[in-house]
Design a protein that fits this description.
52% helix; alpha/beta; 5 strands; five-stranded parallel beta sheet
Length: 165
């Protein structure tokens, strides 16, 4: 597939796998939306690195919050007029003692690793239907099949992503 001038949103792309994914697309000529929820500094660094070879903007959005997701897509369409590819990468891995009732770990992990995928997919699907084109890539994990011994919430969320896909 040709990525030159494709508009691509990679969620959670200010660091880690998301950053590497965004940079790889940029090297192929894609225009990137760098999504972050906490570190503006890291997102700006990725944006500047991409702007040396292609074009990028950074948008702060907690993708687990539906209203913020809608605003993010409104900004993307206002800037680029379209979006071609969504890569649902944002996620978290929290080690914890989930058997002893730590609901906070479950809630945070499910919100960021699963609900965010539903939120972004829902809004981009509306855009893709109007455009009559678009691609969604969901990042799951091998733990969606086997389970992670130290994070049941992560395993359950990634299994949800695999089934949602």
């Amino acid at each position: 597939m040709e990525f030159k001038n494709k508009i691509i949103l990679v969620t959670g792309s200010s660091r880690g796998i998301g950053k590497a994914t965004a940079l790889a697309f940029a090297k192929e000529g894609a225009k990137l939306i760098i999504n972050y929820s906490k570190s503006k500094e890291e997102a700006e660094q990725v944006k500047e690195e991409i702007n040396k070879i292609s074009e990028a903007i950074a948008i702060k959005c907690d993708v687990s919050k539906e209203k913020q997701v809608k605003k993010m897509f409104d900004k993307i369409i206002a800037k680029f007029g379209k979006i071609d590819i969504l890569v649902n990468n944002a996620g978290t891995y929290i080690d914890g003692d989930e058997w002893n009732g730590n609901e906070k770990i479950w809630e945070e992990t499910l919100r960021l690793d699963l609900i965010s995928v539903m939120n972004t997919s829902k809004y981009v699907a509306e855009i893709f239907l109007k455009q009559k084109s678009g691609i969604i890539v969901n990042i799951s994990s091998r733990y969606s099949l086997s389970g992670a011994y130290d994070s049941l919430a992560y395993s359950a969320a990634k299994a949800g992503v695999a089934n949602l896909t």
